[in-house]
Design brief:
Elements lengths: L9 H12 L3 H7 L3 H4 L10 H15 L3 H11 L3 H15 L5 H5 L4 H13 L1
Helix pairs in contact: 1-4, 2-4, 4-5, 4-6, 5-6
Length: about 120
């Protein structure tokens, strides 16, 4: 069901970050090792997308193509990680070769959700 893109998403994420927020993610990742130095010090942990956009782009770039590592890092830096994580999950799930199928399959209502997604896509 989930598409395996199988490509490095870093260049695309870097381009989006530069055009939408003026960020140089490669330099940011070279300068900082600890995610808490970036998220919470440099960029906000707040929930509004305008404030969390740089943080989630940083995580998507740093942990690309490892979707699970990106989502776990988002959880570990805290703050309003639910909103940030939902957008990050979509970005990582769609653009990552490792995918999130095993996490999705572990949901209690996975089959119902899968049926609903399929219904929405085929309409």
């Amino acid at each position: 069901m989930f598409r395996d893109v199988g490509q490095d998403t870093k260049p695309l994420i870097a381009k989006i970050a530069h055009s939408s927020a003026g960020l140089d993610l490669e330099k940011l990742c070279q300068k900082y090792v600890d995610d808490n130095e970036v998220i919470g010090t440099l960029y906000a942990k707040s929930c509004g997308i305008e404030n969390s956009w740089p943080s989630l782009l940083y995580l998507a770039y740093k942990y690309s193509p490892d979707s699970k590592a990106a989502l776990l890092a988002n959880t570990n830096v805290g703050g309003e990680n639910c909103h940030r994580g939902s957008v990050l999950g979509v970005i990582m799930g769609l653009g990552s070769a490792d995918g999130l199928e095993d996490w999705f399959s572990g949901l209690q209502q996975a089959s119902i959700i899968r049926q609903e997604i399929t219904r929405l896509i085929t309409q």
